[in-house]
Amino acid sequence: MADDTTDTKSSNQMWGGRFASGPDAIMEEINASIGFDKKLFAQDIRGSIAHATMLAHQGIISTDDKDKIVHGLNTILSEIESGNFEFSRQLEDIHMNVEARLATLIGPAAGRLHTARSRNDQVALDFRLWVKEELQKTEQMLTGLIAAFLDRAEEHAESVMPGFTHLQTAQPVTFGHHCMAYVEMFGRDRSRVRHAIEHLDESPIGAAALAGTGYPIDRHMTAKALGFREPTRNSIDTVSDRDFAIEFLSIAAIAGMHLSRLAEEIVIWSTPQFGFVRLSDAFSTGSSIMPQKKNPDAAELVRAKTGRINGSLVALLTIMKGLPLAYSKDMQEDKEQVFDAAESLELAIAAMTGMVRDMTVNTARMKAAAGSGYSTATDLADWLVREAGLPFRDAHHVTGRAVALAESKGCDLAELPLSCLQAIHPDITDKVYDVLTVEASVASRKSFGGTAPSEVRKQIAFWRARN
Ligand code: ARG
Question: What are the residue numbers of the active site?
Fold first, then answer.
């Protein structure tokens, strides 16, 4: 460092002009972000190349300097990619690490790169580019998960299982229908991702520190070069805004909540007591002491990752909530939350896609369970409304008595003799037995979005056309 101060620590070469000495060790530790923001190296270099190209195009720097800068930046990119770059904590962050290396590589021309920009718009740019790419990746991963569910739904459009409310047997549904519920959930997540990409598709570079710049820059040119729809419209907002990161975390939290509900169902379904599904060896573990066990660890970890993602969302909302405009250093704490949540979300989606594709579905167990717990009681009530002309409330009452009788006899509704049913209501005929099976029950629910296999197949076709 070109600083002849007698102090043992030298001042920062990027902003040290008015500083006589360097930072205290603790200051350096709390201030540095290179430990995590080095993840942004590719975005930082892309952003700098676009900025330098624009500066030269506008005649703000010479073409010669621009060529040196671009060449140097490309060299740095390959150095980092090949692991031959030494990151320095003294240089605080990725922006200054890259710029300092550029100075070593190309000399004084490096000092012209930072014309008409600040680290405030630079970091906003790098981070936006990173989050945009992550959202695009998330969109693809959700598409893969949806595809896995569509395949299982198709395979099981007719497989009957108990539908639950309060985790108590409610009415028979099909496993295909249940799978399609998740398609809807992850489909909504994916459309949130698409909206978020639209929201963040504005280029921050050129907002400079907060007020814009006096240099004749062309922000539309850099926006275009970096693949953004347009430049942001308010330089103050541009450097204070982290909505794009918070939106990513909100989407991740909602998707995580969906993944966690699925994880919980898989945990329940794979118990010997339920036995609805068997996880593949690839997504379960054994116990070191109990040889019979097969544990749904991957599902449990997906459930737990959701807690981490929620934590990250709350952390960033809390970091941002009291900040005056424009940039404050607090905002440096945004990245770790997003990086951690992105990693968790990617893992959770990947693990779930694998589990859904691999699990063995025990249709016999599902069907047996579907018939227990008087799951066709509503069908009996509906039959009384339709065939005997009873008001639904009365039919409900009659059915309640039939359920109580079956319960006292320890049998199913379909096993009650006709004489017993007629003793409860004289208009009941033997036709009623047609609706008391689980297959008849699901086949009858043909309302739009209902569980009838014919309806489920329509919904599968709808989603296939959109996936
Ligand atoms: N490392 C900083 C961050 O992540 C870069 C921006 C620093 N800006 C500043 N004015 N100190 O937020």
Answer: 166, 287
